[in-house]
Every structure is written in C-alpha cells, then in structure tokens.
C-alpha cells in the first residue's frame, strides 16, 4: 500500500511543480509580453491601419523586402499564428516562399521580441540559460540570433521562390 501513498504524493507534486512554474512565468515574462503587445498595437493605431497595409503591399513587390521586412513585420505586428495572414499581400506563386521565410523566423524573433512567438520562447531561453550558467551575457546572443535569422529567411525565401517557379513552369 506504500505505492498508493507514493503515487498520490508524486501525482499531486507534478501539479504543484506546474503551478509553481506558471506563477514564475506570470510574475516574470507575462507582464513584459503584455506591455510589448500593447506597444505594438498602439503603434499600429498611431500610424494607421491603412498606412500599414499600403506599406506592406508596396514591400511585397520587391524580393528583398518580401523575404525580410514582410515576415519580420508580420510576426512583430500580428504575432504567431496571425502573422500568416500577411501572405494575402503576395502573389499566389510567392506564397510558399513567403510562408517558408515567415516560419523560419519564428524562433530567431523570440530573442529580442519574446511576445511575437511566446510558445517557442523555450528554445531561445534554453540556449540563453546555458550561456548564463557559463558566465556569459545574452544580449550579444540575442542580436546575433536575430540578425542571422534575417539572413536565413531571405535565403530560404529566394530559394523556395525559385523552386516554386521551376515546378510551376514544369507543370
């Protein structure tokens, strides 16, 4: 009968640990995320939704902007998963490439803007925690992670667009 007692203690202990983790998040990162989201939506209202829409439509005409600025803005302004709606501004044949570049930026964006894809924050925090334990700072890592992410999304967007065009022309 000891196993029943052991099971009861450890079963409820699992929920106690989950509750403790939840409170750590709620008193730690959640207020920051709420303030960042509020700032982002306030900026959209200040600039005006029509102006933001026109700027995105303009950006979609140029490959460099389509696979750098557009994914970045869509993630920062709309967050994951609403960011995918920016795909409506690109041509049908460019949608797979835009989606590829957007999805590829969901992890790097969390280094500086954790609210944009909070569900994947554990990836960056795991790496950052290792650096902190080793005695290093995380600011340089965050900036490098973000900048390398921009290069990667551009390359993925261009390559995927070329592959899509090739396959579409072959059919």
From TrEMBL:
Name the record gives this protein: PTS glucitol/sorbitol transporter subunit IIC
Domain of life: Bacteria
GO CC terms of this entry: membrane
Keywords: Membrane, Transmembrane, Transmembrane helix
InterPro entries noted in UniProt: PTS_IID_sorb
Organism lineage: Bacteria, Bacillati, Bacillota, Bacilli, Bacillales
Gene Ontology BP terms: phosphoenolpyruvate-dependent sugar phosphotransferase system
Transmembrane segments: 22-44, 64-84, 141-159
């Amino acid at each position: 009968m000891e196993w029943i007692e052991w099971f009861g203690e450890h079963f409820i202990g699992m929920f106690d640990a989950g509750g403790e983790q939840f409170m750590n998040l709620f008193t730690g990162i959640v207020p920051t995320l709420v303030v960042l989201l509020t700032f982002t939506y306030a900026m959209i209202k200040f600039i005006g939704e029509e102006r933001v829409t026109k700027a995105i439509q303009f950006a979609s005409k140029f490959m460099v902007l389509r696979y750098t600025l557009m994914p970045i803005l869509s993630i920062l302004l709309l967050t994951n998963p609403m960011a995918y709606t920016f795909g409506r501004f690109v041509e049908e044949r460019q949608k797979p490439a835009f989606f590829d570049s957007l999805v590829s930026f969901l992890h790097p964006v969390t280094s500086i803007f954790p609210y944009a894809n909070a569900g994947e924050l554990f990836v960056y925090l795991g790496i950052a925690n290792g650096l902190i334990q080793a005695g290093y700072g995380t600011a340089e890592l965050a900036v490098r992670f973000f900048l390398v992410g921009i290069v990667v999304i551009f390359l993925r967007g261009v390559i995927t667009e070329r592959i899509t065009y090739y396959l579409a022309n072959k059919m």
